[in-house]
């Protein structure tokens, strides 16, 4: 088995697992972080240490980190919470057609409650330009929600350049940074983003834990989405999962330490993979070569029906797009927004690499894909090699 689906989830780093294990101890480390006794205070100290580690990677204060169950909840809390606090009636939001479903479905729900939404179409390179966002603003625009890195193509949006312009216009800025954290340098002390979502399992941490950055100055105010107990400064009630939080903190610390070296290594692997695939004619790169994160390569293969292609790669763990959308079996809405027709969008593979990917795995994966595509084209009565 060759795992090239790091954009969907990452394996738990052994060092993260080791950090978590003491907090699963049935005798000494099971205290509730909200309890005011020795075991509770010990758990609370571990939670706060992890909060500091997440904040360090994002360049913000620990008191600006709110624990959630993951980025889906973080996105919901950011968008619903901010707009409900402000008042939905008459409010306007700007986002893009290539956001994660956790943002798009949240926006569509809020449209039923009176919110008006503008959905921007990406440029041919897969990016949402700052000029597009600014042109879509209205006097009643309350928020812009934009992902920093697209989870299917790896395209990096100009979030840092846009943030200061939105601040000048008094528009709240939410950023889904799930694919950016640990891969790009983020300094929220210098970049005036108001709300930013991250997830533990994308950075070799445990599933079921994430965080939302909520700026203190100027304060981004949220209406809580989960009530009961007033945990996390009243923004997210619920008993904290100490072991998962500790794992998340360790994962973010390790990501920060390895980020520069990993970026260089993954860039080399990505280009090695792309070069090996180019022995095939009529393939199309959906990931930008320059303005893209190093670990994601999305490619469409003309003449190779998508489900058949994936069925012929049983030992290769890859995806056709976002893991959260794969159950629909429909061509990627992200690639269709980029202008790919349904056939090409359906015949695409997202090959994403990470901390434990090797050159040998990349070479073997490329060979398997080339063989599968070649066989499918040979079998297809519609394939014209000379076209």
TrEMBL record:
EC numbers: 2.8.1.7
Cofactor annotation: pyridoxal 5'-phosphate
InterPro entries to which the protein is assigned, alphabetical: Aminotrans_V_dom, Aminotrans_V_PyrdxlP_BS, Cysteine_dSase, PyrdxlP-dep_Trfase, PyrdxlP-dep_Trfase_major, PyrdxlP-dep_Trfase_small
Record-annotated membrane-spanning stretches: none
Catalytic activity entry: (sulfur carrier)-H + L-cysteine = (sulfur carrier)-SH + L-alanine
Aminotransferase class V domain sequence ranges: 2-364
Keyword Iron-sulfur in annotation: yes
Gene3D superfamilies recorded: Aspartate Aminotransferase, domain 1 (3.90.1150.10), Type I PLP-dependent aspartate aminotransferase-like (Major domain) (3.40.640.10)
Keyword Transferase (UniProt): yes
GO molecular function (one): transaminase activity
Keywords: 2Fe-2S, Aminotransferase, Iron, Iron-sulfur, Metal-binding, Pyridoxal phosphate, Transferase
PROSITE patterns on file: AA_TRANSFER_CLASS_5
Alphabetical list of Pfam families matching this protein: Aminotran_5
Family: Belongs to the class-V pyridoxal-phosphate-dependent aminotransferase family. NifS/IscS subfamily.
Name used for this protein in its record: cysteine desulfurase
């Amino acid at each position: 088995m060759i795992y090239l689906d790091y954009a969907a989830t990452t394996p738990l780093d052994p060092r993260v697992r080791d950090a978590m294990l003491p907090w699963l101890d049935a005798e000494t480390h099971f205290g509730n972080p909200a309890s005011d006794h020795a075991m509770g205070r010990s758990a609370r100290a571990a939670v706060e240490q992890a909060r500091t580690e997440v904040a360090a990677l994002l360049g913000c204060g620990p008191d600006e980190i709110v624990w959630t169950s993951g980025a889906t909840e973080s996105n919901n809390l950011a968008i619903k919470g901010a707009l409900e606090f402000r008042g939905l009636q008459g409010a306007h939001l700007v986002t893009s057609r290539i956001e994660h479903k956790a943002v798009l479905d949240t926006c569509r729900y809020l449209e039923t409650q009176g919110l008006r939404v503008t959905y921007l179409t990406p440029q041919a390179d897969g990016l949402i330009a700052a000029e597009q966002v600014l042109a879509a603003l209205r006097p009643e625009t309350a928020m812009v929600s934009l992902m920093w890195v697209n989870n299917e193509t790896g395209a990096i949006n100009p979030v840092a350049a846009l943030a200061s312009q939105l601040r000048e216009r008094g528009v709240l800025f939410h950023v889904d940074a799930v694919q950016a954290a640990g891969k790009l340098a983020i300094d929220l002390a210098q970049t005036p983003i108001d709300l930013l979502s991250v997830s533990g399992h994308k950075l070799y941490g445990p599933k079921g834990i994430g965080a939302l950055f909520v700026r203190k100055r100027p304060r981004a105010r949220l209406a809580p989405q989960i009530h009961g107990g007033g945990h996390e400064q009243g923004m997210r009630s619920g008993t904290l999962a100490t072991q998962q939080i500790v794992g998340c903190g360790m994962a973010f610390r390790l990501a920060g330490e390895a980020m520069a070296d990993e970026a260089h290594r993954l860039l080399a692997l990505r280009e090695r993979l792309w070069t090996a695939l180019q022995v095939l004619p009529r393939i199309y790169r959906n990931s930008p070569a320059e303005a893209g994160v190093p670990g994601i390569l999305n490619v469409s293969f003309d003449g190779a029906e998508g489900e058949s292609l994936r069925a012929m790669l049983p030992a290769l763990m890859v995806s056709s797009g976002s893991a959260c959308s794969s159950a629909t079996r429909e061509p990627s809405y992200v690639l269709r927004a980029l202008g790919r027709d349904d056939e090409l969008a359906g015949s695409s593979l997202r090959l994403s690499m990470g901390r434990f990917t090797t050159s040998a795995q990349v070479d073997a994966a490329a060979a398997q894909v080339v063989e599968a595509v070649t066989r499918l084209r040979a079998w297809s009565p519609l394939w014209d090699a000379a076209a």
